[in-house]
Design goal:
This protein is mainly alpha-helical. It has 13 helices and 4 strands. It folds into 2 domains: about 1-140, no CATH class; about 145-260, no CATH class. The protein starts with 14 loop residues before the first strand and ends in a 14-residue tail after the last helix.
Length: about 260
């Protein structure tokens, strides 16, 4: 029965391949998603491919953090300078920070639970996906890639792992964010002085308020690149399995294929 005669067939799709990247549904641990939102609001939504909401929350986090000097206050509190931490905080914006922070954690958890349900329905329907996209500026296609390669490139420069996986928009966002954070934190200059053995000078040039953004972005880029490559490979195997079953399975015989991701 074709799609015209059966309007309820293929109501959900597991993936979409475009020239800007591959967006796909797959099962996620809601607690892991919420933990990334706890580390940095917006990261949980980016893992769910909810890009507009994720970018908005990330930019809001940076904006409001800069306004209240939260990172600097955290450093002071870690060093036992409680009064200095209180003094550096701007009370005008603190009340704006907490509700959005809690919303990011709650919404990412809720969305992960809902999207897992949608994925199960899409997987049962086994709807077809476009595996090849050609545009005037780019070409994207489903292919198997190596997760460890994506992880290593992300360790070298955050965003390169996403670019290896052809996630153009996310890679551009991560690259621009990394450049801004490294520039304003003076991280490269501090490393330069550290290599020269000038430890005190290296410490003084660091901008702690901007530097504390870097660990979250750095490890998120590595985690996102690795897990996305694994799921991309699963999608490739699943698509290939469906193609073989539809085109080469003889009537009355069943071909059993196990998806293995190396």
């Amino acid at each position: 029965m074709n799609n015209f005669r059966n309007p309820f067939r293929n109501r959900r799709y597991k993936a979409h391949v475009s020239i800007l990247g591959t967006t796909q549904l797959h099962k996620r641990n809601p607690f892991t998603i919420a933990a990334w939102s706890l580390a940095f609001p917006g990261f949980g939504h980016l893992l769910l491919n909810k890009y507009l909401r994720g970018y908005a929350l990330v930019l809001w986090e940076v904006f409001i953090n800069q306004k209240i000097h939260l990172n600097l206050a955290m450093v002071y509190s870690f060093n036992g300078r409680i009064q200095a931490a209180i003094d550096v905080l701007d009370p005008k914006y603190v009340s704006l920070y907490i509700p959005v922070y809690c919303f990011a954690i709650w919404d990412s958890y809720r969305t992960a639970v809902d999207m897992n349900k949608v994925y199960l329905l899409a997987d049962r329907e086994n709807g077809p996906i476009n595996q090849f996209s050609v545009g005037a500026l780019e070409i994207n296609y489903l292919d198997k890639r190596k997760p460890w390669v994506a992880m290593v490139w992300s360790m070298a420069v955050p965003s390169m792992g996403q670019l290896y996986l052809h996630r153009i928009i996310l890679a551009s966002f991560m690259l621009v964010s990394t450049i801004v954070i490294v520039t304003y934190s003076n991280l490269i200059l501090a490393i330069h002085y550290l290599i020269l053995g000038q430890i005190e000078k290296s410490t003084k040039v660091l901008n702690i308020q901007w530097l504390l953004y870097f660990p979250s972005f750095y490890f998120f880029a590595i985690y996102e690149a690795y897990t996305s490559t694994v799921e991309n490979n699963k999608l490739f195997n699943d698509n290939l399995k469906n193609f073989l079953l539809q085109k080469f399975q003889k009537s009355g015989k069943i071909i059993r294929l196990e998806s293995k991701v190396k």
